[in-house]
Amino acid sequence: MLNKEVSVTMPRWVPLIGGILGSTTCGLLLYAWSVFIKPLNEEFGWSRAEIAMAFSICALIFGVTTFAAGKMSDKYGPRIVVVIGSLILALGFVLSAFIQLKWQLYLTYGVIAGLGGGLVYLPPIATAPKWWPDRKALATGFAVVGLGLGSFIMAPLATYIITDPDMGWRYVFIYVGIAMGLMGLAAAMCLDVPPANWKPEGWNPVFVDEKTGVQKESDYLFGEAIRTPSFWLLYVGYFCGCFAGLMVIGHIAGHGRDAGLEPMQAAAAVSTLAIFNAVVRIIIGFIADNIGTKKSFLIIFSLQVVAMVCLFPAGSSAVFLSIIAALIGWNYGAMFTLFPATCLQYYGPTAQGANYGLLFTAFGFAGFAGPLIGGMLKDTTGTYFAPFVLGAAVVGISVFIFMFVKPPQRKS
């Protein structure tokens, strides 16, 4: 086993920088895919469902890979995992510039880039809160904020390159692929786990249950965590929230274009969703540290149901679409701070890499199902009304789950 401890303690803000860089890299990969829908459709004649399949495969591979990435990070340390992932991610994205057939796009963007992205994403999330045990939710928010920042950058950048008569969509894959590889390598250099028994100066926690006053038991190991009903309730809730959010991310630009908006107006909705997706990840950390994760979940999922219902009629108005996109981005982005923070709260930091790595695979399955089903329903019905209403219904399941989910209790 490689030594994953450091002999000299780095400033604890450095892993936060690593988290921002790593998650921004993954945001460039995932969250502006809808800007490619129109140009790929025009050049190759592929249907929305066929184009959405590339994004669905990427999200699936990305999400499933995080489980292995978490276990590898726990065993070998986060740095080497992120280095390997960055190189694979850049390779897959650049190769996507040269595709001529659907299966080539599915392989380069979906499988190769998705695999690299999953290796880059999880280690910073498992690492940053270990340096901030006094502010776990806030540290998690910093570690995932870049997912929204990446898409905020990517949507207008990609649209500008695509609409430039001297370039086009292939150049997006080349330039952004190289940039993502460099950013991922920089993120890796910022990551290491704290030494054994390290804690911030002046922080002297009392490990007792807030409600009962009884001293808490030791952390849950991976095998123990997955045997608790709470873990799988969190898993289903995560899937449902991601299903709707990723369906919107995969299709919102196409929805705007179909409703008559100009390319940059549709891209503006993507960017608006992205910036609120990013900003909330830090703000929700402050909120959750004060009112708790459960109340936070109930609020954001209830608002998401309303936003999904309003999304279809908003498509023909650039302003209205951006407002609804902002609300959806806010609710969607909050999950990626709340779920790892809740996992850490319920099961402790000892096996956080493996525990949250498995929990995050729900994102992968939702990322495969949401955009694909959305595209199929759009191709079948001719509009996005049915996909968005279905998304609202699925998020409603998350509301129901978080009315009842509780922290696990060890049996005597």
Describe this protein's structure:
- This protein is mainly alpha-helical.
- It is 75% helix and 0% strand.
- It has 16 helices and no strands.
- The chain has helices at residues 14-30, 37-44, 48-76, 78-95, 102-131, 136-144, 146-163, 169-189, 222-225, 229-258, 263-291, 293-314, 318-347, 352-359, 361-381, 385-401.
- The longest helix has 30 residues, at 102-131.
CATH fold call: Growth Hormone, Chain: A
* CATH domain class: Mainly Alpha
Number of domains: 1
Shape: globular
**CATH architecture group name:** Up-down Bundle
Structural class of the secondary structure composition? mainly alpha
The percent range for strand residues is under 5%
Order of helices and strands: HHHHHHHHHHHHHHHH
Distance from first to last alpha carbon: 34 Å
Low-pLDDT stretches: 1-8, 207-215
- How many DSSP H or I helices? 16
Main sheet overview: none
What is the number of E strands? 0
Helix content: over 70%
CATH superfamily: MFS general substrate transporter like domains
Task: Give average pLDDT, whole number.
Answer: 84
